[in-house]
Amino acid sequence: MNRHLFMLLGVLVVLGGCSLTPVYTRPEAPVPAAWPTGPAYDASPASTDAAPAAEIAWREFFTDERMQRVIATAIENNRDLRLAALNVQRARGIYGIQRAALFPALDATASGSKKRVPADLSSSGERYTAEQYDVNLGVYAWEIDFFGRLRSLRDQALEAFLATDEARRSTQILIVSAVGETYLTLAADREALELARTTFEAQKATYHLVKRRYDVGLATELDLNFAQTQVDIARRDMARYAQRVAQDENALNFLVGRSTPVSGANLPADLAGIKPLRAIDPGISSEVLLERPDIIQAEHLLKAANANIGAARAALFPRVSLTSAVGTASAELSGLFEAGSGTWLFAPQIVMPIFDARLWSALDVTKAEQEIALVQYEQTIQTAFREVADTLAVRGTVDEQLAAQQSLVRATAETYRLSEARYLKGVDSYLGVLVAQRSLFAAQQGLVALNLSKLANQVRLYAALGGGTY
C-alpha cells in the first residue's frame, strides 16, 4: 500500500501544475487614450482641491449634511443594494464549493448486516446465519486534478465572485448618484413651484389693477381678458410643479427604501440652499476608466470565460479518481476492534474519453462565450468613455449658458418693468405687458433648469468616473 501511495503522490507532484487554461492578457481599450477636446470642452485646469473621483468618498463629494443623511439612509435600506450584497454572498459560497472540490473529503462510515443463508446456498450444505460489522475512515471517489479541470472551475467561480462584488459596487454608485440627482431635481422643482406661486400672486395683483382700470374706462375688455389668461396660466403652472414636487418626493422615498418618508427637515427648499458639490478632476488619460467597477466586473467575467475554456479542454483528457479507506471488520460486533480485524482499501480509477461529441461541442461553446465576454468588456469601456465625454461637454459649456441665461433674465425683467410702466401711462397696450410677462417667467424657469443641469452633471461626472463606492 505504501508503495502505491508514494507512486501516486509522485505523479501528483509532476502533473499537479498542469493547466489547459489559455494565458490571459488584458485586451487593449477600444477608446482614445485622451478625453475629447474642442470648443465644447473646458480646457481650463482643474481647481486646486480637485481630485480623481474614485478617490473621493461620497460624503466628501456631497458636502450638504442633509443630503448626506438621505444618501446614508438609502445605502442602508435600498433593496437593490441589499439584493446585490446577497448575490455576493451566494457567489462566495459557490466559489467555496468549487475550491473544496480540489481537496479530498474524509468520511467515516459504519455498517452492520445479519442474514440467514439457506442450506442449498451454503457451501457446507447446512443453513447458517452470517453477520458482518465494519467501521471505516476513508476518501471516496476523490478526483485527482491532473489536467486542471477542477482548478479551472475554481478559477471561474472566483472570477464570478469577484465580478459579483464589483456589481455590488456599481449598484452603490448608481444608488448614490440617483439619490443625489433626485434630491437636486426636488430642489429645482420646489424652486420652480415657488417661482410659479410668486408669479401667480403677481398676476392676480395685475389682474385686479387692470380690472379697476376697466371699471373706470381706462382699459379695454381685451386687456382684462389678457390679464385673466395670465392668471390662469400661472395657476396651471403652480399645479404642474406641485405635481412634479410630489413625484420627486415619491422617487426619493423609493430610493431611500424606508417605510417612513424622508423627514421634511432633510429636504431642500431650493438649489441655492444646497452646499456646493466638491470639484473633481477627470485627469488627462481615459485609462482611469479601467478602475470603474462595471469595467472591472466585465473583465472578471472575461477571465471567468477564459477559465471555462481550460475546464472544457481538460474534460477531453483522462479523469483519475481515488477511493481509499482504512478500518476494522468482524463477523461479531464484540470483535470489531480486536487485534487482527484491521482492513484497508486502495482503489484508483481512470476514465478515458474515447468518443463523446458533447465534449467538443462544450469546448466550442466556451470559446464562443469567451468571445462574447470580450465584446461585452469592450462595449462597457466604450459606454463609459461616452458617458464621461458627454458630461465633460456639458461642463465645458454650461457656465456660458448660465451667464447668457442670467443676462436674459435681467433683460426680460427690465423689459417687463418698462412695458408695465408704459401701459399704466397709456402709451402701450396690455399686449406688450403680456409678452414681457411670459418672456420673464420662461427666462426664470430656464435659469432654474440650467442651474439644475450644472449640478446634476457634476453628479453624473462623479459617477461616470467611478466615484461613490465608499
If you had to describe this structure to a student in words, what would you say it looks like?
The structure is a single chain. This protein has 470 residues and is of the alpha+beta class. It folds into two domains: 18-101 and 147-316 and 356-464, Outer membrane efflux proteins (OEP), CATH 1.20.1600.10; 103-144 and 318-352, Outer membrane efflux proteins (OEP). 60% of the residues lie in helices and 11% in strands. The protein contains nine helices and four strands, in the order H-H-H-H-E-E-H-H-H-E-E-H-H. The protein has a four-stranded antiparallel β-sheet with strand order 1-2-3-4, with no helix packed on it. The chain is elongated and about 140 Å long. The chain starts with a helix and ends in a 6-residue tail after the last helix.
Q: How helical, in percent, are the residues?
A: 55-70%
Radius of gyration: 38 Å
- Through-space gap between termini: 57 Å
Question: Which structural class fits the helix and strand makeup?
Answer: alpha+beta
Specify the number of helices. Answer: 9
> Strand-and-helix sequence, N→C?
HHHHEEHHHEEHH
Largest sheet: 4 strands, antiparallel
- The average pLDDT score comes to 86
| Biggest sheet strand line-up | 1-2-3-4
Question: Can you tell me the number of structural domains?
Answer: 2
Q: Name the CATH homologous superfamily of the largest domain.
A: Outer membrane efflux proteins (OEP)
Q: Any idea of the CATH topology of the largest domain?
A: Outer membrane efflux proteins (OEP)
> What is the global morphology?
elongated
Strand % is: 5-15%
Q: Which segments are poorly predicted (pLDDT under 50) over 5 or more consecutive residues?
A: none
* CATH architectural name of the largest domain: Up-down Bundle
CATH class of the largest domain: Mainly Alpha
Total E-strand runs: 4
